[in-house]
Amino acid sequence: MKILNLYCGIGGNRRLWGDEHSITAVELNPKIAKIYQDFFPKDKMVVGDAHKYLLDHFEEFDFIWSSPPCPSHSVCNHFLKGQGIVRYPDMALWQEIVYLKKWFKGKYCVENVISYYEPLIRPQLLDRHYFWANFRIRPFKVERNFNIANARASTRRPSKDNYKALEEYHGIKLRKRNLLLLRNCVYPPLALHILNESKKEQQVSLFK
Question: What residues form DSSP beta bridges with 133?
Fold first, then answer.
């Protein structure tokens, strides 16, 4: 199967997909792209604008995963507004959902955080994420523990134990500590579950 992994980051969603697929990953930040490529050397890495790449290449793939930037949609905007900081939601998220729904013939999944506003298009909710897909995703139990919750919630540098718990949780070890990169990862078993769900026959679209 030909897979397009947009806004791939360091590849948390990709970690358990195996090497039997032909995967193209797109990441704007060259340093983050280098980490991904070190983890997954068989994947084709494109350093560039994922939003534009989708528009130009979507017809070349069987399955598309997209994780557009989440800060402008996050519930954290409530706290920012209290500090006098306001901003528009980045509409690229909604552009991609509408575009894929209308034009893409394969299976797709668009991932983002739970938003501070009512979603413009109804998502499926699993763990701490919204998912928009043209197939039904069955419920999936995500393991949690206190250290992981602390590491995710912390706005400061996490303790060594919390950081280690987050690395073990995602199965990803970084040469240099970077809380944000780990915290942004989709839980790998959940991402594998979604990929497997996309392969099932007679899926029913939730967005007709």
Answer: 109
Number of domains in the chain: 2
Q: Which residue has the tokens 């899926």?
A: 203
Q: Would the pTM of this model clear 0.90, i.e. be above it?
A: no
159 shares a domain with 91: no
Q: Are residues 136 and 169 in the same domain?
A: no
Choose among 174, 146, 204: nearest CA to 34: 174
Is the domain of 154 the same as that of 131? no
Domain CATH for 132: 3.40.50.150
* From 33-37, 112-116, 197-201, the region with the lowest mean pLDDT: 197-201
| Residues 53, 131 within the same domain | yes
Beta partners for residue 27, in sequence order: 47
CA 58, CA 206: separation in Å to the nearest integer? Answer: 21
* Tens digit of each residue's pLDDT (9 = 90 or more) over 50-104: 999 999 999 999 999 999 999 999 988 777 667 787 889 999 999 999 999 999 9
Cβ atoms of 203 and 135 within 8 Å: the answer is: yes
Return the closest-CA partner of residue 108 out of 56, 28, 54, 71: 54
